[in-house]
Model the fold of this input.
Amino acid sequence: MLDLKEYGIVMWPEEKIISFREKLLTWYDENKRDLPWRRSKNPYHIWVSEIMLHQTRVDTVIPYYERFLDWFPTVESLANAPEERLLKAWEGLGYYSRVRNMQAAAQQIMTDFGGQFPNTYEGISILKGIGPYTAGAISSIAFNLPEPAVDGNVMRVLARLFEVNHDIGVPSNRKIFQAMMEILIDPKRPGDFNQALMDLGSDIESPVNPRPEESPVKDFSAAYQNGTMDVYPIKEPKKKPLPIYLKALVVRNDRGQYLLEKNESEKLLAGFWHFPLIEVDDFSSDNDQLDLFSQVKEESRAFGPSPQESFEQDYDLEVNWSQQVFDQVKHVFSHRKWHIQILAGQVTETKQFSDREIRWVSPQEFSDYPLAKPQQKIWQAYKTALEDEGLQ
DNA sequence: AACGCGGGGTC
DNA sequence: GACCCAGCGTT
Done:
């Protein structure tokens, strides 16, 4: 067992712990939100909600949760779902490896657990995509096991309660909060205790603009008593996303279809479909209209083919490029910021690609294809520009 | 231990 | 624009 004193934390005496549990759970009973997954004790339902809630807000999750259980009502149906349907169910939620891991775990449950959801912390932990937080959440909520569920909210609340001088963003410090929770957790109502701390952390004890005077446990909080609420939790700021410059190629054929390509990489937006994209160093040279003379032409030769040229080569198409200038599309990921310029054009042929991961798709069929946010923004910008053109 | 992995809310 | 977030897997 970890010695909390070594980390400068003085744990409360037993009477204070019991009093804290009572205060917190009484507040929870009176103030807890009526959420769809709180009406169920089905471990599959709890699991789906917990995975969706990773780095994602409750209001965003609710409609996805309802639809997901509608599409995949059982572990077995999830295990057998086709990839496109899986991605479509998650489209717009982000962190798409979550749903891939969930399907892998559903298959584990079918093969290794006879279709029965594991009912121990160790069994749950074996499942793909389930780490210590989620294992604790499912164990405590669905099976009433006294396991802590330490997420960002819990760490923030505990850091303020005990003035923890350790960075909550450092993974190895998680064990400190885990140890605190093993002592604090209410053995009779572990699931409610975990959820109460999370509710408290997401609203009253929110990271920005907290309302500590409204906290049901402010009398227990060292930071509140000492006026150090703004000091805790200790957390290093994140790094800024790296800017990436891309040209998106929106190309229409005679039938009004557009070229879409499947992302075969296993990394960012794996498995999603996208308008052809080409990465460039930056947009500086071609933004300057006055430079359209020999100097720039020589430079472009030195730097190889233009995006238009390399696109025509890659896809073996002759494109009638539009002169229209489209708005630039921007999209921020956790670690990248995409700046996208749209190039549009038409082809008079309807060449079929033997490689079936490149297709001509009509706008009516877009809804059959998983399309991530940047592609949706590109399509919106393209359509808007065409409409504006039509009004002239 | 650091990084890769989305998207949306809030100020 | 800058901040935040109901994490996990990989390297």
In short: The mean pLDDT of chain A is 91. The two ends of chain A are 73 Å apart (CA to CA). Chain A is about 45% helix and 10% strand.
